[in-house]
């Protein structure tokens, strides 16, 4: 499996791409493979404020439903509308198929997040 080194990860299998005060959030390759065929994503509305480690949505696969946990507190400023009609894009390209874009609370604390190497060690 592939874990890009420019991303950060959570123990709950979300990935985070920081861009200044913004963060793109998705699920890892490991997560999408464990879930199987993804058929639906229930994600928050725009301007929803979500606290760190709170559930911000769910991923529904053929066999199961899994919660999504917010890796950094902030406000949802964009959702990936492509996933509404084609949730299977997460299976095809988990790192290109971000789920939400968040304006994160400053200062950003990433000490609880994992590097690609740490995440690899976690899931092996």
Automatic annotation (TrEMBL):
Its cofactor is (R)-lipoate. Residues 22-103 form the Lipoyl-binding domain. GO terms for biological process: glycine decarboxylation via glycine cleavage system; protein lipoylation. Gene3D superfamilies: 2.40.50.100. Pfam families: GCV_H. The keyword RNA-binding does not apply. Keywords: Lipoyl. The glycine cleavage system catalyzes the degradation of glycine. The H protein shuttles the methylamine group of glycine from the P protein to the T protein. Belongs to the GcvH family. HAMAP family: GcvH. This is Glycine cleavage system H protein. It comes from Chitinophaga terrae (ex Kim and Jung 2007).
